[in-house]
Amino acid sequence: MREKTKCTRWFHYTIEDAKAAQAELDQRAEQGWELEEVGLFTATFRRAEHPRPCWVEPARWQSVRRKDEDARADYLALCDEAGWELISEDGGLFYFRAREGTDPAPIQTDAGVEWEDVWKKALRGQLSSMLRVVIYGVVWNGAQFLQDRPRVWELFLSDAALAAQTLLIFLLAAFMAFPLYYTVIQSLKPIEEIFRFPPTLYVSRPVMDNYGEMFRILANMWVPLSRYLFNTLFIAVLGTGLHVLVAGMAAYPLAKHNFPGRNLIFGVIMLGLLFVNQVTFVPSFVIIAKLGILNTYLAYLLPTIGVSLGLFLMRQFISQLPDSMLEAAKIDGANEHRVFFSIVFPSIKPAVITVIIFQFINLWNGLPSDVVYNEEFKSLTQAMSQITAANAYARYGPSMAASVIMMIPPIVIFVSLQSKVIETMTSAGIKG
């Protein structure tokens, strides 16, 4: 019986799994088969007495960017110079084969960088595919609706349209919840699952080792964990309270008193909503330094008192209150302070609660690290970020555990008070 000199085999490994591909090619080489050609789902081998070694590497570059194209060309040139000829580039993998008469060694790459690049590439690919599917579905369903030329209101009120809207809302909710879910499952993975490729969206063997390691790292810091926790709670609670009080007292005259420059001041407040803290950090830092309050609690508190969002929401909510109610109180002899604290402030409870939620979450998660250098005044968020400062890859699991811990208070507060947020947003329309 004539021995086969060529064969075609299906791939037995997951797409972009370089290690599994390398293991399969090595197994084929031990059996006397040399890789000849790579197809979409199959590979062709030929019988050889001494099969040339093969080498599989992830393709870490996108062809759409000139920078990536140059890096890819340099990398392939380096491999060719070392004696590796490129057979194919399929499934996100480079397939190399040793040139005839050579026995080259693989080009060594940093394992951590390689894993990060491939993980990012795989995640981008999955998100891109999901986005294309969603866009295609929306366009297809829209075209089907337009074929019948329905009226506009019939289009949006039909059962099919309502179902499409519900599906879209569900997809958006899932998209926004995915980072939370991914952080939680990463915190429960053992080290061998964290660096598994391709990354999985589930935990095969959940453990709590990352949380134990996180607390061990925090226990070995210069300042006790209780100090970081006290600083964060102190700043978050006091800063929130001061902001609510100052914003409410400033919003009342802006909403109910007609004085020169009122519209200009309100315009400046709205302009402040356009900028994030990073934009105004330099002038804020200069002011804090000139006041001599660096490395103090005031460096945290002072910039947070006059945040534009809280003032804007309260002003819009107060403007909805009837003027007759306030005038009746003044006729009965109440002064402005009595009117504000006895009538206005209790009447804007939804807005107050909304501002409390936003301000507390902002202070809990976003205290600036560049205005305080003394370890005794740093927040819990800054302490958590220092967990990964030494070795980001070795402490990846503890950093995910720290992220989960930091997410719990804001989520609990928002979920318990979300109805007030909705009420405030529906009432806070922009008025002159």
Rounded mean pLDDT score? 77
- In what order do the strands lie side by side in the largest sheet? 1-3-2
Oligomer: single chain
Number of domains: 3
How many DSSP H or I helices? 17
**Quick one: CATH superfamily of the largest domain?**
MetI-like
The helix/strand series, from N terminus to C terminus, equals EHEEEHEEHHHHHHHHHHHHHHH
Features:
about 425 residues, mainly alpha, MetI-like fold, 3 domains, three-stranded antiparallel sheet
Overview in brief:
The chain is mainly alpha-helical. It has helices spanning 18-30, 66-82, 111-147, 152-157, 159-187, 191-194, 209-219, 225-256, 262-272, 281-291, 297-305, 308-318, 323-331, 336-347, 349-365, 380-385, 396-427, and strands at residues 6-10, 33-38, 42-47, 54-58, 84-90, 93-98.
Spell out the blueprint of helices and strands.
Layout lengths: L5 E5 L7 H13 L2 E6 L3 E6 L6 E5 L7 H17 L1 E7 L2 E6 L12 H37 L4 H6 L1 H29 L3 H4 L14 H11 L5 H32 L5 H11 L8 H11 L5 H9 L2 H11 L4 H9 L4 H12 L1 H17 L14 H6 L10 H32 L5
Antiparallel strand pairs: 1-3, 2-3, 4-6, 5-6
Helix pairs in contact: 5-17, 7-17, 8-11, 8-12, 8-15, 9-12, 12-15, 13-14, 15-17
Summarize the structure in words.
The chain folds into three domains: 6-107, no CATH class; 112-207; 215-427, MetI-like fold (Orthogonal Bundle). The chain is mostly helical and 432 residues long. Helix content is 62%, strand content 8%. It has helices at residues 18-30, 66-82, 111-147, 152-157, 159-187, 191-194, 209-219, 225-256, 262-272, 281-291, 297-305, 308-318, 323-331, 336-347, 349-365, 380-385, 396-427; strands spanning 6-10, 33-38, 42-47, 54-58, 84-90, 93-98. A hairpin with a 3-residue loop joins strand 2 and strand 3 (42-47). Helix 8 (225-256) packs parallel to helix 11 (297-305), helix 8 packs antiparallel against helix 15 and helix 12 (308-318) runs antiparallel to helix 15 (349-365). It starts with 5 loop residues before the first strand and ends in a 5-residue tail after the last helix. It has a three-stranded antiparallel sheet, covered by helices on one side. A three-stranded antiparallel sheet has the order 4-6-5. The mean pLDDT is 77.
